[in-house]
Amino acid sequence: MLRVRNQQGLRMLDQPNLNKIDQEHLLTLYEITRTMNSSLDFGEVLDIVMDSMMQVTQAQRGFLMISDDNGRLRIQVARSNEGDPAEETFSTTIVNQVVETHKPLLTNNAQFDTRYKAGQSIIMKGLRAILCAPMLVKDRLVGVVYVDTSIRTGTFKESDMFLLSAVAGQAAIAIENARLYGVAVEKGRLERELQMAREIQESLLPRRMPQLPGYEIAARWQAAREVAGDFYDVFALSGDTVGLVIADVSDKGAAAALFMASARGMIRSHALAGYSPFDTLSRTNDMIAGDSADGTFVTVYYSLFHLGGAAIHVNAGHNPPVLYRCEQNTVSFLPRGGRALGWFPNNPLKPVEVPLQPGDVIVYYTDGLTDAENPAGENYGEERLAQAITDCGRQSAAQILNYLVHEVECFCDGIPAFDDLTLCVVRYTG
Hints:
Elements: E1 5-7, E2 10-12, H1 23-36, H2 42-57, E3 61-67, E4 73-80, H3 92-101, E5 105-107, H4 120-125, E6 127-137, E7 140-150, H5 158-204, E8 215-222, E9 230-237, E10 241-249, H6 253-272, H7 277-291, E11 298-306, E12 311-316, E13 322-325, E14 330-333, E15 351-353, E16 361-365, H8 367-370, H9 381-392, H10 397-412, E17 421-428
Antiparallel strand pairs: 1-2, 2-5, 3-4, 3-7, 5-6, 6-7, 8-17, 9-10, 10-11, 11-12, 12-15, 13-14, 13-16, 16-17
């Protein structure tokens, strides 16, 4: 049921009534709707909508305003039929009333209408007629369309208001479809970029483990998101030695992945240049501390294994690895030490020698393993990890790795991981 009231030149209606639109206007509405639906480019749709509104009303000026994420209206398109760009001045009172009521509004007496106070811009421009209609999608305001004319041009008819309301309704759908299409395209682009980033990140991990007589090495890397801040690296050095690095960047996602790639490159370049584990992490720490402006840091554990079971370890704020002594069937945690790389210069790092006996195992991990949660909200924790290593410590490095991953997955019982998980196992066979 349509309700129209006329007071001081102001008309409002509850909803468009197509019965009030003549046959010519219906044909115009059909053509405009077809044109608006011909494109999914958001900017192009906005232009089509505004041009259509100007065509429908024969207005001098027109503005298309779209609601932002905070519900504020932003002018997206401004038109003037006089060739010059339209000055962004309009009756905020009328616009606000349309926004509040979700109903179109028409006045042919803008200079003296007592329902609102004419602003200076309206008086100076000599505006006579103003027409404003909401663009709604399921009662949600997408934006408003606003057109006006000066005293010398004329007035708007009631049929203009009905037609503009109908066009605004179709425009809202076209604009929303274009917006959703743009969101989908952008999401697809980001997903493709993240997939490429993951592939690049995976390519930075060792393709195959270097061989060192007397040692077995196995590793697993699992990202909680498309990309990760965890990483590990295993590389052969001169003099029959192998270096192993495990690290965890403080952040997550793409930012952590970029930082991870940078830190990995620094550590590897220093190690391959012949620097000791202590000097490698010290130099990397000073470089990161000098470059990192946002406080990002990385915890690192670096071990150097030699023939015969000799090994040197340096901890830079990382979770201490678990040492399994085969002969005693006992587990212990290697010493904590140093701060995470990038916090402060002159990191107080300390190399530690831990010789291995045949059958001994070292398990390196990131906190994605010990912090993993079960449905009850409990963490897997270091105690469960130590017990699991005791249970499987006499197996091969690959078997130990698979056993630990399986244990954590069973503990989580389907709860998705919220942090990256990296696990490395080194077994000395003698």
